[in-house]
Structure prediction request, 150 residues.
Amino acid sequence: MISSVEPTRGNYRAQASLEYAMVVAMVLAISIPVWIMIREQTSGASDEVDASLARLAVSQVASAADWAFLQGHPARKVIGVEFPNSLSGFSFMGREARATLATSGGRAMDVYEVSLANLTGDVPQRGGYYNLQVAAVEGAAGLVNVTVVE
Prediction:
């Protein structure tokens, strides 16, 4: 005698919920790695855009400083410069204009350009668009001052 077990209505529901759970698990197993890869690539692209913007900013400052240096006092020039939002510092060290960026990986990246003149001045330490006045300093041969103009 063979006994047969009649499936009950509850068993069908349990099987359906198990199948749904497996489908959800498979979708998550595929979508999470794809999401991680896309996020890493976009953050790397963002760092590259910020580095390009910082290179352009220090290049504009150094170029304007070279112009003021070669013209001598009372040469002055106002330039519009956009600093990236990841800017953590902008400084002058001798003839060097240096922008420091905070990358998405938590590292610091320096972008710099060397000018013909010794540079000094006060430049904002955060991202945004600024008008900077670059002027040759009277009585100080080879010194160029860079400040923000309102």
